[in-house]
Design brief:
56% helix; alpha/beta; DNA_pol_III_gamma-3; Zinc Finger, Delta Prime, domain 3; 5-stranded parallel beta sheet
Length: 356
């Protein structure tokens, strides 16, 4: 699996979550380490990865030495975390260990100092899954944690965490990784693995992953195993992942911009005949048209959504004014809501094209 092989081992290898990394690095360099952290955010955005790097840095032989990059990944403590043999980092998956006995065992373990004499780090993943009793027991430990213990609680559902727990932790909200950030990472993996894949194909993978980098890396693994000899383009990605080629979006917008209704309707038929989901296509198309509109007021934002290449496509659309673009977005948003109830699925889209 590529995502395991290329899991970041130091903070500088991470993409996204700069706000989290900066604060944790600050804690490490000043030596002011908190005793309880809460990492919240969507799956696949780096919570466990960052927790492991932080845990490693805390017990790294270089910890406390000013100006050194942590973790070193060469000392014994670092290597044991990398091998999964560290006794100082205890990982608990609360989804399968949610009972009171597990938390009692955790409490006992927390009283015992770390074998290395450094920090003992407890990483509790999916912490919202703990039972009520377990949560209360955990809270007791968080109220008076032994000095050598650091808790990192991770969750995809922060709204399920009790306010009493929230008041005891330093909270970090992890963001979805943007497609542009993902492309950077996927590109570096592709280069290292000598995978022949073009930028548009990487962007298609990134956009299909909804902010979860791990999903994108899993998708890349899958595509490589299906097409081992390459080259991989957008079409191959769309075929393997069952996606609609993203080149269809600029194509349709281009037809609408130039008022070529015949080609627009023909494209809708092609998509439907190929067995693609029209509702899904329309959603993606609306998102694309929105980015085209955004690119006029905020090019940086639209580039982070659609990738830098999209800017050229957008500037080719300058025959179309803002007002028309807004009308297209509104018309297709309405059409999308009608697809489900239409006797002929492509009819609402055809009517949308005609009415523009
Ligand atoms: Zn080290």
């Amino acid at each position: 699996m590529l995502y395991r092989k290329y899991r970041p081992q130091v903070f500088s290898q991470l993409v996204g979550q700069e706000h989290v990394v900066r604060t944790l690095e600050g804690a490490l360099s000043s030596g002011r380490v908190g005793q309880a952290y809460l990492f919240t955010g969507p799956r696949g955005t780096g919570k466990t990865t960052i927790a492991r790097i932080f845990a490693k840095a805390l017990n790294c032989a270089d910890f406390g030495k000013k100006g050194t990059i942590l973790p070193c990944n060469t000392c014994e403590a670092c290597l044991s975390v990398n091998n999964g043999t560290s006794l100082d980092l205890i990982e608990i998956d609360a989804a399968s260990n949610r009972g009171i006995d597990e938390i009692r065992a955790l409490k006992e373990s927390a009283q015992v100092s770390a074998p290395s004499g450094g920090y003992k780090v407890f990483l509790i993943d999916e912490v919202h899954m703990l039972t009520k009793d377990s949560f209360n027991a955990l809270l007791k430990i968080l109220e008076e944690p032994p000095a050598h213990v650091v808790f990192i609680l991770a969750t995809t559902e922060p709204h399920k965490i009790l306010a009493t727990v929230l008041s005891r932790v330093q909270r970090f909200d992890f963001k979805r990784i943007t497609p542009a950030e993902m492309v950077t990472k996927l590109k570096s993996i592709a280069q290292a693995e000598k995978i022949q894949i073009d930028d548009l194909a990487l962007l298609a993978i990134a956009k299909s992953s909804d902010g979860a980098l791990r999903d994108a890396e899993v998708a890349l693994t899958k595509i490589r195993s299906m097409i081992p000899s390459g080259p991989i383009g957008e079409k191959e990605v769309a075929d393997v992942l069952g996606l609609i080629p993203i080149s269809y979006h600029p194509k349709l917008l281009g037809f609408l911009a130039s008022g070529d209704k015949a080609s627009a309707v023909a494209l809708i038929h092609t998509i439907h005949d190929a067995g693609m989901d029209l509702e899904h296509f329309t959603k993606e198309f609306i998102s694309y048209a929105r980015s085209a509109l955004l690119s006029r007021v905020n090019p940086t934002l639209s580039a982070s959504i659609e990738g830098p290449e999209a800017h050229q496509q957008f500037s080719a659309l300058n025959t179309i004014d803002n007002e028309k673009l807004i009308k297209i977005i509104n018309t297709f948003t309405l059409a999308r809501s009608q697809i489900k109830f239409s006797p002929i699925p492509q009819l609402p889209l055809e009517l949308a094209v005609m009415s523009l």
